[in-house]
Amino acid sequence: MNDIRIENAKSGPASAAPRVLVVEDEAPLALLLSYNLEAEGFAVEHVERGDEAELRLIEAPPDLVILDWMLPGISGLEICRRLRARDVTKTLPVIMLTARGEEGERVRGLSIGADDYVVKPFSVPELMARVRSLLRRSRPERVASLLAAGDLQLDRDMRRVRRGSRDVHLGPTEFRLLEYLMEKPGRVFSRAQLLDGVWGMAIDIDERTVDVHVGRLRKVLSRGKERDPIRTVRGAGYSFDETFGKN
């Protein structure tokens, strides 16, 4: 267990947008979903084939998957079954989309591990509400407005970081970096994973850039004898120290 406190969960996404993977081979529907998810503040990635989704889910699991049942390559049902078989994705939220509305099919989809089941055609506002509700239950740290550990507080709404009685002034990149680490205290992120999660997959920069920004973040977070909340794991990467604030 960790001591990150999560407060004031909102109905919509916070400044570090939760990532949603849309796996849908119907282009008009995929476009509709992507447009509405992005309008809600989510970061959206879309793939059309089941085998493409399988690779993407292994490389960089998102915060939630909207998964069509019938897909070329690998079926959505099989993808969901494989997700539940892996430790790293066994709790990943999955909303299954399907044209199959029979009770037996819904039971089948839920029994293999889908968290929710939506029959086409569906109400887009209702689906958005289901996405937000599922994220609040399964990934509260991704939609919380305030993250706190010990004397360190990060307010997503105000874009403000405080340590004790003082404000910590961070640039946009350092803010996102701290936010990303605080969301999963104790988890060790490689430099490549941090580049993906903080800078984005499309960015073409050297992994050593991560070291530079971690150094800047540490410098402003900790003064004098204040404890450094960021832990370096030699040969692996960085993590937010899960023991920070406990002693």
* Distance N to C terminus: 15 Å
Q: Please report which band the strand proportion falls in: under 5%, 5-15%, 15-25%, 25-35%, 35-45% or over 45%.
A: 15-25%
Give the radius of gyration. Answer: 19 Å
**What is the H-and-E element order?**
EEHEHEHEHEHHEEEEHHHEE
- CATH classification, class level of the largest domain: Alpha Beta
Instruction: Output the structural class.
Output: alpha/beta
Shape: elongated
CATH architecture of the largest domain: 3-Layer(aba) Sandwich
E-strand count: 12
Average pLDDT rating: 83
Widest beta sheet: strand line-up = 1-7-8-9-10
CATH topology of the largest domain: Rossmann fold
Main sheet attributes: strand count, strand direction, barrel closure? 5 strands, antiparallel
Contiguous runs where pLDDT drops below 50 for at least 5 residues: 8-15
How would you portray this structure in words?
The structure is a single chain. The protein is an alpha/beta fold and 247 residues long. It has two domains: 16-141, Response regulator (Rossmann fold, 3-Layer(aba) Sandwich), CATH 3.40.50.2300; 144-240, Arc Repressor Mutant, subunit A, CATH 1.10.10. The protein is built from nine helices and twelve strands. It has helices spanning 27-39, 50-59, 76-85, 103-111, 124-138, 140-143, 172-183, 191-199, 208-221, and strands at residues 5-9, 19-23, 43-47, 64-68, 94-98, 116-119, 144-149, 152-155, 160-163, 166-168, 230-233, 237-240. The strands form three sheets. A five-stranded antiparallel β-sheet has the order 1-7-8-9-10. β9 (160-163) and β10 (166-168) form a beta hairpin. α7 (172-183) crosses α8 (191-199). The two termini are 15 Å apart. The relative contact order is 0.14.
